[in-house]
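Lecture 7 notes: from sequence to structure.
We start with the chain below.
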Amino acid sequence: MNTLRIWVVLVVVASTQFRSAWIMAAEEPSNSSPGETRAIKTSRFVILYRPGEAWQKGHSIYEQPLMEHGKYMAKLLKEKKLVMAGPFSDSSGGMAVIEVDGEREAADILQHDPAIVQRVFHGEIHPWLVVFDKNTVSAHGD
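Predicted structure tokens for the same chain:
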């Protein structure tokens, strides 16, 4: 029980600090270009992909008709909307992390994904608040 309380406190503190930093950054006057301002206002979403009706049962994810989906992901990466993506190693689907202007744009990305259109995958979108990131805070909280 004490461990659970510690985790809850850590998550609340971290999310409060994240929100405060975001609000301060958003309110700060800036001489930055519109492209730099976009980075502050983007939202991060996770797309979970699961096998759809056109999924070829008995075949691994690497044997599925996903060539167009791969090209679409590469396009999103080039547009700097895709942060990371890939299949689950147990062939149960995959995941993508995107940074876009809002939920409407995230839904549009999913709706136009060839793997969704062709029903190889079902997809679901979840807004994602990153609280812990090894690239921004050391393990010692420095």
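Points to note: The chain has five helices and four strands. The chain has two domains: 1-31, 42-142.
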